[in-house]
């Protein structure tokens, strides 16, 4: 079984890597991500489940799901060439992702299956700062946050609850620490209540228009995003 251990509010502005390289480690953006990363690392997660809003780089108008789950061994990103960022190979856990998708469908969500894909800056920029070695598997959950009709806020919140249920019902540990991290980024982030620790999970959420000065938002035990 798995637990959610926290949550972060994180911007994914594509020029942030360039600004940090230009302005150095004492810049506001660099200090923001340094504080965030220190807190993130202390949680020792085994897996990141990242809620994301794609910017028509993974999907386009001819194939635009409202909700989708990436189910694959690895994927690449960013695919939209933000400045001063390499293209990463990002590993995932397809069995766990399939379990999340199946649980969501059982809860009434028509979660599209995505198996051959890359991601844009909205996934890659937070990972670039927080886990640059890409050593933690990532499961992306895509939410259409740009092209109407958009899902209602309550629907997104309910999706967060379904994902929480999927995490809690995962039947086996991920690795020795039995910890999992859940993450979300983008303009719309579903919330998840935090259970008692068995397997540890974090949620990361953000606003694509944020400046980098937004404080970290931790989900405490018994609270919601």
Can you describe this structure?
The structure is a single chain. The protein is α/β, with parallel strands linked by helices. The chain has one domain (6-205): LigB-like (Protocatechuate 4,5-dioxygenase, Chain B, 3-Layer(aba) Sandwich). The chain has five helices and nine strands, in the order βααββββαβαβαββ. The radius of gyration is 16 Å and the shape is globular. 46% of the residues are buried.
Strand order of the largest sheet: 6-3-7-2-8
Shape: globular
Indicate the mean pLDDT.
Answer: 82
Number of strands: 9
The main sheet comes to: 5 strands, mixed
Q: Give the amount of beta strand, in percent.
A: 15-25%
Give me the Rg, rounded.
16 Å
Helical residues, percent: 25-40%
CATH topology: Protocatechuate 4,5-dioxygenase, Chain B
The N- to C-terminal Cα distance equals 22 Å
Topology:
Layout: E1 6-9, H1 16-23, H2 28-42, E2 48-52, E3 67-70, E4 74-77, E5 88-91, H3 94-106, E6 112-114, H4 121-130, E7 138-143, H5 153-168, E8 181-184, E9 202-205
Parallel strand pairs: 1-9, 2-7, 2-8, 3-6
Antiparallel strand pairs: 3-7, 4-5
Helix pairs in contact: 3-5
């Amino acid at each position: 079984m798995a637990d959610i251990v926290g949550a972060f509010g994180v911007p994914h502005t594509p020029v942030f890597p360039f600004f940090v390289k230009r302005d150095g480690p004492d810049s506001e953006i660099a200090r923001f991500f340094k504080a965030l990363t220190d807190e993130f690392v202390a949680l020792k997660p085994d897996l990141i489940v990242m809620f994301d809003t794609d910017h028509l780089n993974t999907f386009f108008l001819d194939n635009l799901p409202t909700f989708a789950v990436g189910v694959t061994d690895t994927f690449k990103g960013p695919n939209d060439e933000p400045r001063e960022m390499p293209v990463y190979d990002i590993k995932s856990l397809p069995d766990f992702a399939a379990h999340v998708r199946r649980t969501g469908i059982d809860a009434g969500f028509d979660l599209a299956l995505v198996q051959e894909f890359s991601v844009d800056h909205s996934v890659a920029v937070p990972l670039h700062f927080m886990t640059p070695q890409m050593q933690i598997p990532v499961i992306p959950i895509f939410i259409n946050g740009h092209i109407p009709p958009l899902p209602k806020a309550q629907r997104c919140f309910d999706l967060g609850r379904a994902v929480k249920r999927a995490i809690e019902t995962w039947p086996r540990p991920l690795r020795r620490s039995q910890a999992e991290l859940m993450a979300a980024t983008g303009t719309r982030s579903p919330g998840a209540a935090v259970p008692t620790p068995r397997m540890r999970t974090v949620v990361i959420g953000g606003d694509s228009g944020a400046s980098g000065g937004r404080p970290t938002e931790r989900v405490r035990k018994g609270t919601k995003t």
